Amino acid sequence: MADPMTNFEAPEIDALPEEIQERIEKETEDAGFTPNVFTAMAYKPSHFWAFFDYHDALVDDSALEREEIEMIVVTVSGANDCLYCVVAHGALCRVYAEDPQLADQLATNHRAADLGPHHRAMLDFAVALTNNPGSVTREDLLVLRNNGFSEEAIWDIASVVAFYNLSNRLAIVADMRPNEEFYSIGRE
Question: pLDDT digit string (tens) for 59-79?
Answer without folding.
Answer: 999 999 999 999 999 999 999
